[in-house]
Amino acid sequence: MVHYRRIGEFLANRFLLSLVALIILMGLLWAFRITILRTMGDLLIDQDQEVQADAVYVLGGSPIERGGEAARLLGAKKAPVAICTGENINHVLEGEGFLLTDARLSRNAMLRAGADTAAVKELTVGTSTWEEAAAILEHARRNGSDTIIVVTTEFHLRRVKRVFRKQGKGSGITVIARGARSQQYDSDRWWESEEGLLMVNNEYVKSLYYLWKY
User: Fold this and answer.
1) Of 212, 148, 137, 143, nearest to 170 (Cα)?
2) What pTM, to 2 d.p., does this model score?
3) Sheet strand arrangement including 147-153
4) Which one-letter DSSP state was computed for residue 170?
């Protein structure tokens, strides 16, 4: 009986210690939750410094934000021309009878932001970051570009840079990645909105998928 009592006391003490440790851990996570969440977002943002380039390429998606950033870069004379990519059709607009590709939507957004019509082109290719990267690098090679700026959304930067590094290895083309800030959430406090939560969650899932597939 004494033996069993000691075993019971040992297990009870272990349980109590584990419970205390768990409470302390939960307390620390709660106390540092803002720092942890902000770091989770910051890990996805790998922004390059702006440089002079031969062209700006705008990845498909989020046309208002990305188009606006690309227009700003042209206005700052960072490149003489911008090329908008992406062949996906926006399904919401398709439901209204407008068959507009990502490339066209980004171009339209750039023009509304003040970009020169003659300086904004379309490259209607690509349904994913991987496909667009291949098309962009080939287009840049054909046009003799040695430095290009690729515009995406802030939280996509790390994955986009990895894709271009992998596809552009040995090409001699320097890729500068610039991220456009979202108008739907604050990237410094992304967890406070549904859009920000979805963006960061989806980006981590995509990053794992790209690591596995490519």
Assistant:
1) 137
2) 0.87
3) 120-123, 82-85, 55-58, 147-153, 174-180
4) T
